[in-house]
Amino acid sequence: MLEHIECPRCSAPNLSSEIVCFACGRPLRPPRKRLPGQPPPEAPWVFWLGLLIALAAAAFVGWHIVSWIAAHRARAALPLWHLPVAGVLLLAAGQFAFYQARQRDRRWWRFRRAPELKLSRVGPGDAVWIRGELQCDTPLVAPYVGQECAYYRYVVRERSEDEAGWRVTERDTKAVDFRVVGDGESVRVPSGAVLFDAPLYVDTPLSPGGTARVRVWTLAAGVPLSLCGLLVDDGTRRRLDPLDDSLPIVATWRLPADYVRLVAKRARAAQRWAWALTILGVLVLIAGIAGV
Predict the structure, then answer these.
(1) Where are the alpha helices (DSSP H) in the chain?
(2) Spatial distance between the Cα atoms of 151 and 192, rounded to a whole number of angstroms
(3) Can you give the pLDDT at residue 1?
(4) Which of 8, 94, 155, 201 could make a disulfide contact with 277, Cβ separation 3.0–4.6 Å?
(5) What is the pLDDT of residue 177?
(6) Among 248, 250, 229, CA closest to 240
(7) Distance between CA atoms of 73 and 79, rounded to whole angstroms?
């Protein structure tokens, strides 16, 4: 017979071979500790090779940037404070990008750890992914398309004959409280605490000449919806709350695994931008201080 252990948090039965609870994600075993006599794990050779390649690439790019700055300063006289100030601004932008990358990485970690459960199996206090049909008691009507929905965002852009680009002339975003229904259960979701990820519903010209276009994103009533949050039961109805103060409820048309991959991709992109801005800021700052 298979041995089971009970989760100390939600009392769900788990196999003795499980590491985390299938219902709430709580660890079922204490973390393993390294013995004092054991050496720390060594980094693989791929890591060191990648680090050497990254340093070589940074040195190559930095040398070309400094050479370009020197040639530019020889052609155009610039004030002495020009490069140091630019370097400081780039460093500040890099640190802000690092902060954004940490926030997105934290979101990815929380969303990845949240299990995907059916509404009938979710209990109070569970931080989970749920999926069901979106329903509204007082739905909105999305402009330009007339679709009943719980959330919409639209942007109108225009371009005149003497302009090369587009300019935004009108935009708006609205949301209302809604319910998610599935497996004979329903959960209320307050719209004020939701981060919406809606699909592009329509992208069409408004005028025959194509000088005005409208794009509408919406979560229509009756479509399948995935949400990640903390389930709360106040005795009269069940609702979904944010995971914490800095992490809102996520409502997306994607499957949970697809949304987790999207967040991971955005976190990696933010890290690359942060490193690029920081390295560029250091090089510009050094060039300015050295009087290149």
Answers:
(1) 45-75, 82-113, 256-290
(2) 11
(3) 44
(4) 94
(5) 92
(6) 229
(7) 10
The Cα–Cα gap between 174 and 251 comes to: 14
Q: Is residue 244 within 8 Å of residue 195, measured between CB atoms?
A: no
**Secondary structure percentages of the chain, helix, strand, coil, to 5:** 35, 30, 35
Quote the longest CA-to-CA distance of the chain: 83
| Short-list 199, 197, 143, CA closest to 172 | 143
Q: Is 150 exposed, middle or buried (0-12, 13-18, 19+ CB in 10 A)?
A: buried
- Single out the residue of 200, 215, 216 nearest to residue 157, CA to CA: 215
- The identity of residue 212, as a single letter, is A
Tens digits of residue pLDDT in 196-232: 999 888 888 887 777 888 899 999 888 899 999 988 8
Contact criterion met (CB below 8 Å) for 149 and 177: no
Query: What are 128's strand-pairing partners?
Result: 229
Q: If 0-12 CB within 10 Å is exposed, 13-18 middle and 19+ buried, where does residue 266 land?
A: middle
* Interatomic CA distance for residues 96 and 274, integer angstroms: 8
Residue 222 region by backbone torsions, left for phi larger than 0, else alpha for psi between -120 and 50, else beta:
left
DSSP state of 44: P
- C-alpha 205/C-alpha 197 separation (Å) is 23
Q: How far apart are CA 199 and CA 177, in angstroms?
A: 19
Residue type, position 38, single letter? Q
CA–CA gap between residue 136 and residue 253 (Å, rounded): 16
Q: Which residues of the chain have pLDDT under 70?
A: 1-4, 14-20, 22-25, 29-48, 50-51, 58-59, 62-63, 65-81, 160-164, 290-292
Distance CA 161, CA 153 (A): 27
